[in-house]
Amino acid sequence: MAGLDPLIHAPARLQVMTTLSAVSEAEFATLREALEVSDSVLSKHLSALAAAGYVRLRKGALSGRRTTWISMTGNGRKALRGHVTALRQMIDLVD
């Protein structure tokens, strides 16, 4: 169906995007725990979303340890809105 974004459609990526839509940024560990996935799985999904320009990764230190913060870009918000609209249209077809 038109409007579905195959990059966002994967359940873990959709969960990343919807989680990020509610905050200005999230720490990597917070996202990992919310999604209940391993570091490597989350890293793979974030890399794909970052390559598409949907999220931005910012590295830094917190309490003396290295960490990564993730935020959604304007393009990511637009893509998520389009994807959600397409999902709603599909749901409206169900009777």
Automatic annotation (TrEMBL):
Q: Provide the GO MF annotations for this entry.
A: DNA binding
Segments forming a coiled coil: none
Ranges for domain Winged helix DNA-binding: 13-91
InterPro entries, A to Z: WH-like_DNA-bd_sf (IPR036388), WH_DNA-bd_dom (IPR027395), WH_DNA-bd_sf (IPR036390)
| Keywords from the named record | DNA-binding
Q: Which SUPFAM superfamilies match?
A: Winged helix' DNA-binding domain (SSF46785)
Protein name stated in the entry:
Winged helix DNA-binding domain-containing protein
